Amino acid sequence: MTLQPRRHYGDPAAEYRAAVDGCGVVVRADRRLLRVHGRAPVQMLNGIVTSRIPEAPVGQPMQGEAVYGTILTAKGRMVTDLVTVWLGAGEEEGLGLSVAEVAHEAVLAHFGRFLPPRLARVEDRGAGARLLTLVGPRAGETVAAAFGAAPADGFALLGDGPLGDGALVARGVRQVPSWDVWVGADAASGVWDRLRGHGAVPVGAGAWHTLRVEAGFPEFGIDMDDGTIPVEAGLVDVAFDHDKGCYTGQEVIVRIRHRGRVNWHLRALRFGDSAARPGAQLFEAGGTKVRGRVTSVADSPRFGQVVGLGYVRREVEPPATLRLGSGEGAALGVEACRR
How far is it, in rounded angstroms, from Cα 90 to Cα 42? Predict the structure, then answer.
């Protein structure tokens, strides 16, 4: 059986309940695994990614940190967000970068310009690696039962990892209790069956979308794109090592942090029962100037209303109220996103 992502498995409400009360497993299609290896991949990546490069893993099974960061253009715009892990004990085995699927071609082009192949080679794992995410309060015990290890933080490399018939298990999205499991494509169906055998309920992409919007976690390609400055998305304190050496785009970020500001900020939106849509514009009551735009929308069981994410002008300090579609439109709440 070839695992394919689905919007749902027939009962979205039950899938959501499994993900918030027990353990659900999601076939993810929004992330892609790249391998960077060779003589000096750490040194080369250190000048490209905004976060620090984690130390090589130790122990048995090998464990280490999973570090969230971004890749920027020289103008401080995002190429992708990413999570950096290790795929083995050293630089020849290499580092694994979980990047946005929609950005992987831009990432490869960026590396083609800035990574010298004699020091660091990039391998696009593409269809050769699959990502399964376990989510919910019982996800940790399910991971431990299925793999014998559930890292409290960071990642554990099991067997020969996703480069072979093993697995890489890492803590997932920080706002949602979750674990990411990278496996080779040939092993994915067997791992899926194993996880289901330990109680994981299949959960579709629709429920996962609702969970991340409820938690205020932006997705690259939806809430962030190649025009986004990461400060706008609230990533400056979670995706950057401000003590490291130079990286591409650093001057822009430093200038904003110390002497400047951005005009837009990612906010959590509360629509009540209004029929909001991504792309809708936001206004002040009675106003005609656009004060925001909607990027994500979900019908939230947790909040009992339609919720979303979007960018709002810096002058609109949360908590605040704006109007949907026009200055005479339905009122909506604007709140700060959790980090």
Answer: 10
What kind of fold does domain 27-197 have according to CATH?
Gyrase A; domain 2 (3.30.1360)
Question: What is the residue-wise DSSP string for 273-333?
Answer: T----TT-EEE-TT--SEEEEEEEEEEETTTTEEEEEEEEETTSPSSEEEEESSTTS-EEE
Report which of 252, 289, 292 is spatially closest to residue 268, judged by C-alpha positions: 292
Give the CATH number of domain 263-336. Answer: 2.40.30.110
pLDDT of residue 322: 98
How does pLDDT run across 81-111, given as a tens digit for each residue?
Answer: 999 999 999 999 999 999 999 999 999 999 9
Say what the pTM is. Answer: 0.96
Amino acid at site 184: G
pLDDT 10s digits, 278-296: 999 999 999 999 999 999 9
Contact 89, 57 (CB under 8 A): yes
Question: What three-state secondary structure class fits 172?
Answer: coil
What is the separation of C-alpha 11 from the centre of its chain, rounded to a whole number of angstroms?
A: 25
- For residues 48 and 247, what is the distance between their CA atoms, to the nearest angstrom? 5
- CATH 2.40.30.110 boundaries in the chain: 263-336
